[in-house]
Amino acid sequence: MKKLFLFMGLIGLAYDSYGQSYCAGLGYASSNSVVGEFVFSMGKNLYKVGASMQFPFGRGLAYKSDWASNGTFDGTGKYFVLFDVGYGRVVSRKWSLEAEVSMGVDVHYTNFIYNHSTTNQSFHIVTDRESLYGFGLNAGYGISKYLSVFAGYNTIKSFQVGIRIW
Predict the structure, then answer these.
(1) Which of 20, 66, 149, 150 is the most exposed place for a label (fewest CB within 10 A)?
(2) Which residues are CB-contacts of 143 (< 8 A; sequence separation ≥ 6)?
(3) Residue closest to 76 by CA, chosen among 107, 120, 104
């Protein structure tokens, strides 16, 4: 066990000496979506992967279209689910600029309420799916060695802000 801790400590020292670090970020976009990301920093380069989900989803669980005949129509809607990849560069001691590409799906749905003598249950049926592609630019500011904030604009998510913990 002591050898494992010694080995992990040496890995940590080697890792830190090359100027590499990882962080996790969480954010919110004005399109009513949540943004989650992981960032890998190597020197002045930042590499990012993340995901975004828009809320609200449809009512209840998703069912097959044959259930629609048993329910009462209760509106339509849509939401998106995205996968983000990006590259950034540290431009000064505290500031970074980042570009991201977003790919995902736009899900259209119809809400129904199932009226039955013993239960009233809500559900939704996915009626269409469309591919989405977009891009965005973010600026980051390092508050401390372990905390930074970012803000930017994405063509799908609109304005976004978030926090990263290094």
Answers:
(1) 66
(2) 149
(3) 107
What does pTM read for this prediction? 0.77
- Give 164's Cβ-side CA count (13 Å radius): 26
Strands (E), 91-119: 95-115
Helices (H), 18-158: none
Tell me the three state secondary structure of residue 144: coil
Q: How much is the pLDDT for 66?
A: 60
Beta carbons within 10 angstroms of residue 66's beta carbon: 8
Residues linked to residue 36 through DSSP beta bridges, in sequence order: 26, 51
* Number of Cβ within a 10 Å radius of residue 162: 21
The owner of tokens 């000064």 is 92
The DSSP bridge partners found for residue 38 are: 24, 49
* Average pLDDT over every residue of 60-65: 65
Q: Of 129, 122, 127, nearest to 74 (Cα)?
A: 122
Please determine, for residue 4, whether its predicted confidence score (pLDDT) is greater than 50.
Answer: no
Q: What pLDDT, on a 0 to 100 scale, did the predictor assign at position 67?
A: 58
Rounded to whole angstroms, the Cα distance separating 82 from 89 reads 23
